[in-house]
Amino acid sequence: MFVRTVFEFYRAHWISLTFGLGLMALYLASAMAHRDYWYALAGVVVVVSGVGWLWHRYEP
């Protein structure tokens, strides 16, 4: 049941999730390449917060 909900959530928000996660992947790769671990940690917090916010607003 949880997997079905996750797929429905992605289908409902696929544009924002794909764009946001792609952009954050580039940001995290750049931060790790320059050994800015605090910026990498901040990027992870932003991604988790954004997905959590979308998940909280999601109504199937």
Characterise the protein shown here.
The protein has 60 residues and is an all-alpha fold. Helix content is 87%, strand content 0%. It contains three helices and no strands. It is elongated and about 40 Å long.
How would you describe this structure in keywords?
elongated; 60 residues; 0% strand; mainly alpha
- State the shape: elongated
Distance between the termini: 13 Å
Content-based structural category: mainly alpha
Mean pLDDT: 84
How many β-strands, per DSSP? 0
Largest sheet: none
Give the oligomeric state of the chains in this entry, treating copies of one chain as homo and distinct chains as hetero: single chain
Low-confidence stretches: none
**Cα gyration radius (Å):** 13 Å
Fraction in helix: over 70%
Topology pattern, helix = H, strand = E: HHH
The DSSP helix count reads: 3
SS strand fraction: under 5%
Short description:
The chain has 60 residues and is mostly helical. The protein is built from three helices and no strands.
Secondary-structure blueprint of this entry?
Layout: H1 2-12, H2 14-33, H3 37-57
